[in-house]
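Lay summary. Proteins are chains of building blocks that fold into shapes, and those shapes determine what they do. In this project we predict the shape from the chain. Here is one chain we studied, written as its sequence of building blocks.
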Amino acid sequence: MKEINIKNVAITFVVALIIWFIPAPEGVAENAWHLFAIFAATILGIILKAAPMGTMCMMAIGFTALTQVVAPGDAGKSITKALSGFGDKVIWLIGISFFIARGFIKTGLGNRIAFLFIRVFGKSSLGLAYGLGLADVCLAPAIPSNTARGGGIIYPIMKSMAISFDSVPEKPETHRKLGSFLTLNSYYMNLIASSMFLTGTASNPMCQKFAANLGIDITWMSWAAAGFVPGLVAFFVIPLVLYKLYPPELKKTGDAPKMAAQKLKEMGPISKNEWLMLLAFFILLFLWIFGGALSIDATTTAFIGLTLLLLTSVLTWEDVKSEKGAWDTIVWFAVLVMMASSLNELGFIGWFSNLIKIQIGGLSWQVAFPVIIVVYFFSHYIFASATAHVAAMYAALLGVGVSLGIPPMLLAMMLGFMGSIYGVLTHYGHGPAPVFFGSGYVDLKIWWLRGLEIGIVLLIIYMVVGGLWMKVLGYY
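And here is the predicted shape, written in a compact code that computers can read:
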């Protein structure tokens, strides 16, 4: 029972029962309201950490099928519908991308790329920050788990560099020397990189799916095109802002390139498996960018990449079976998408959007747009999971905004970007946050204060630069 918090499970059930037995509001079908009760309780359970996310989602499938809310009176169709999320191509895109990410870690190619950038840029603390950030950006298109990317590749190298300059987690008086600055900057850069690509973090394809439910078509290339410019501006600006707000005591790190060169020397020449991994990476990028013209979608591309890695033995089937993070993501992702999509099909999302529209219906879209984005961004304080936040609010806010006249693609993309960058606010705001915070280099007060300051800067960059850039692209 170590994984289960009985008290919070009980709270979750009570909330579900209260919502279930409240009469359905006018305009909402009874089964839609009951499905909302299950959905809301699932999100609450995830936020409260009543049980692991997979456990909560398995419970949701069980109750959805048992109560037949998605197909009243037809038990067979109800269980089929409850499991429908597992057949969604977006689910498999993100799951397979996790397997591909394992190749970067297993072959050591991810570490090699990071050390190469440190060798070039690492002569100063600011250069070291940019080098680590650039490595993250280069890995982001093919490593959708920003936790694996940040926690599995960037964090160990960042920590090693800090300790090499006598900035040690166990010695608080040394934190400001280098470790505190690199910890915050590496985390922020991880989130910026996550926002730039559809495959940058697990919640992005969920946004794509919810947008598609409302008739808004987002492709890998359209996301990358929209995210590239604001992401690039944020990439250059954020380290400079943090350098002013929270400067490291050590400004010059002349030994870092030598240390990186030594690590590369220890790794030896690029291995055959690294070359094969690099080939697969470029094939993936090429097909994600140009696959539309060849009628090859993003999920098919991911299957091609995985097949190549399996046939060349860069990955084995044992690697695929043991990738727990991927299978875990496939499970909870499929369930949340199923429930959110079903709520949309049953008319609940449309009803809820109209309800909010009535409250703010007098606003022009130019005013409603920043209001929706700011509300979505700062509401992340109450969420311990970016995915739970996207599942709970993305579709509803997108529906409200579109009904108010906000250009659909502009709002869909901007809400999508927020799904990454709002993670700066707290030490639990995104997957890699506990890893970086757990280093001990930054205390809680500083983490939240710097997060708020950087969050405001990112909001301005994405809304102003990103908004203007999407106008240039013709997205609205």
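What the prediction tells us: Residues 1-87 form one domain.
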